[in-house]
Amino acid sequence: MSDFWVLAMKEIKNLLRDKKLVFGLIIVPLVIYPALGKTMQMGIEKAQGTTHVAIVNLDSGRYGEVLVKALQSTPNVSVVVLNATTLEEAIREASLKKQNVLVVIPANFSESIESGNPATVEVFGIFWKITSGIKESVSEARINTVISVLSEEIARIKVAKLGAKNPDAVLHPVRAVSMSVVKGRIINVPPAVVSSVLASQAYGLPLIVFLMVTITAQMAAGAIASEKENKTLETLLTLPVRRTTIVASKISGTALMGLIASLAYMIGLKSYIGSMGFQTGVSPETLGLEMTPTGMFLFALVIFLTIVFSLSLAMVLAVFAEDVQSANTVVSSVILPLAFPAFVLMFTDLEELPAMAKYGLLADPFTHPIVAYRYALGAEYGQLMWSALYLGIIAGATLYLTARIFSSEKLLTAKISWGKRKR
Amino acid sequence: MLEIPEGEWGKNTTAVKVENLEKDYGKVKALKGITFEVREGEIFGLIGPNGAGKSTTLKILATLLRPSGGRAEVFGHDVVNDADKVRGIISYLPEEAGAYKNLTGLEYLQFMARLYAKDEAKAREMVELGIKIADLGERIRDKVSTYSKGMTRKLLLARALMVMPRLAILDEPASGLDIINAYTIRKTIKRFAGEKGVTFLISSHNMLEVEFLCDRVALINEGRIIEIGTPKELKEKYSAENLEEVFMKAIGAGV
What residues make up the domain containing B170? Predict the structure, then answer.
């Protein structure tokens, strides 16, 4: 085995055996996020269970009766007809029977419809305990649907009575058929759906890049700082191993762990977001936004270079910290502000920004993975290559700096202690 | 009984050559121009109080720090310009050191052996020797995080010696060890030097330890060497009973 492998294997073994690290980076995203999502889903499903509706029918005509029947035959709705004579009495009774919604059909309901005036139905959501209110709002939405179906039905009958040949055309004289044009191609998908697909990409990616960068940076910094904290650094630096090999093995070891952790986060977050009903059933591919092998390769290259940059930057910063705690503080205070501007791209496109802001963002290496993803989807390889070139230079320079610092005595003499001092 | 593999080094060579060595930490002058030589196969002791410059000297020779002035060589290799070559023939034990907590003692020795040995057979040989020196019994298979301070120190010493360096630089080798362990370790060091010709450069503020162990010593105080010689010579020169007294007389303090 070469020195590089011996060192990298040790690095990985040491990280994998760190219970705190494995718990925080792999167990939490893979178990806790999906569990959170499941819990939320259960809450939503429970709210979407049977709606308990209390009805007071003060109307003596036939339309009131029709509405009660329509609600009774609606799925997932259980109807309790109250014999109250006033509103107050009805509310008291509905609350006692723990109903979510109270529907009041007024006395003049049928009369209004028959005389050609709009009729009113009063719908009360009853909050007898202060909870999330999902149940009440779901119930209200269901009743409103029933009422609008009923009102459409009544309208159709009325229009037909007036002698129209096609009551539907009278009720809906204009109909909109919505489609989208994506990169010059017409797609039979409404714009709202397209934009929600694009939005899920726009929200998801910066978040994942952000997590990936911060997690791997913290780990790289930890790998150096723990050598200082556990007093293993001096021995390591006197071993018959080239300093560049030490740097390379540390970067590779932590990068591998970082990738595993990011993968775990991606899977965990996807199932979490998925359970919130963010899925539209339309994939970017059906919109003609597909990554070619070239695009995929260039995108992967950009991601790789970003990770190399953030890892070597974190290692340089960790050199100045005495223990893991201060290393984390130093790294967070430098990497987080660098990674944060990329969030602007959640809400806007680079091209829509003023020139200053645009180039400012482009100078930040952490913007590039997000921009690169869009370029890769749009098959704009020239732009991708510029990103890769820029990141290559920046990552190379930081890597060189890291190797230089490791060859000097800075590693042993540079000291900043943030927070608690150990000695 | 510990069996030490055959060493490959001859005697009568200069192992360490230090000339006018200076080191500044910002405004603080830790070394103010020290000069000494260590011959191959010798156990050489640097003794002096805390802050005298012992550790700084050892760190420069271990290629960890760069001198601010003067020069230092290990078997003819400059510690600054030929640092890689120096690292190949030395092994350094820092005063305050630890091992990787999440590895077992055995894994730690295996990891280190693989970095020194050229092939797997040689690495296995080193690890076997290391296990014997460490003398931790079955605990060698436990994680380092479960070790006491003394056990960790024994593991680290085993690491430093099992690789059969030409020069072993040990900063306070017995620090944190109880009487029995310290005694055993000193015996091991003596045998490595005597039978295998491994050169030792040791620092200590335990004068008794140094007297038992070292062929020659240098007394160091405030960044300067004030005396060099065998313990016997120095005791005669200052008509002192032990090195402690020698040191006090040499720095001009009343005894």
Answer: 14-97+166-250
Asked if residue A80 and residue A136 are part of one domain, the reply reads: yes
Please say if the pLDDT value at position B193 is more than 60: yes
pTM across the whole model: 0.74
Q: Specify if B161 maps to a domain.
A: no
Total domain count, chain B: 1
Interchain CB contact of A276 with B (< 8 Å): no
A188 plus A140 within the same structural domain = no
Pairing type for strands A180-182 and A185-187 reads antiparallel
Q: Which residues 6+ apart lie within 8 Å of B30 measured at CB? A: B23, B24, B53, B56, B223
Of A13, A240, A409, the CB nearest to B115: A240
> Is pLDDT of B84 > 80?
yes
β-bridge partners, B225:
B220
Per-residue pLDDT band for A184 (boundaries 50, 70, 90) equals confident
- A240 shares contact with chain B (CB less than 8 Å): yes
Q: At which residue do the structure tokens 């829509």 appear? A: A352
Nearest CA-CA distance, residue B110 and chain A, Å: 10
CB-based contact, A235 to chain B, within 8 Å: yes
Cα nearest neighbour of B61 on chain A: A238
**Cβ–Cβ below 8 Å for A240 and B101:** no
Q: Angle between the B149-162 and B105-116 helix axes, to the nearest 10 degrees?
A: 20
On whether any CB of chain B is under 8 Å from the CB of A19, the answer is no
- The whole-number pLDDT of residue A48 equals 64
Domain enclosing residue A372, as ranges: 3-40+184-413
| A414: chain B residues, CB-CB within 8 Å | none
Rounded distance between C-alpha atoms, residue B46 and residue B248, angstroms: 15
Mutate to test the interface with A, among B80, B81, B102, B144 (most CBs of A within 10 A): B102
- Neighbouring-strand partners of residue A77: A51
pLDDT tens-digit readout, B45-73: 999 888 899 999 999 999 999 999 999 99
Q: Are residues A23 and A65 in the same domain?
A: no
> CA torsion sign, A244 to A249 to A250 to A254?
positive
Q: Which residues of A touch B156 (CB under 8 A)?
A: 235
A77-82: strand order across its sheet: A77-82, A51-57, A101-105, A122-125
The pLDDT value recorded for residue A61 is 84
Q: What pLDDT shows up at residue B146?
A: 95
Cross-strand partners of A376: none
What residues have CB less than 8 Å from A85, skipping those under 6 apart? A58
